[in-house]
Amino acid sequence: MEFKRQLSLDSKKWFPNRSPHVMAQASSPVDDPAMIAGIQVGTMSTQYAVGWFTLALINAGLAQGKGRSGLAWWALSLLLGPFATLLIVLFDPVKPK
Length: 97
Description:
The protein is mainly α and 97 residues long. It folds into two domains: 2-39, no CATH class; 44-90, no CATH class. 70% of the residues lie in helices and 0% in strands. The longest helix is centred in the middle third of the chain and has 22 residues, at 44-65. The model has no long low-confidence stretch (mean pLDDT 77).
């Protein structure tokens, strides 16, 4: 009981616009729907950009594995995205001289 009271008092400092009734009911942040909504940050365009950048990093690794320049393919992947992945997969590995 004391823990819930302390949680309620501390929560007022961090969430001044929320009612104490809602704070007292939540035993953890996961139980509080308002807290869950606050965790889901980021717009679709942000998520899309993070995915695109991650794909470019993966493509750089694939290119280096085939003996090609990772930096060049990373930059190309930022422009072409999944099409660069297709090109890397379809191209044969560079043979050492």
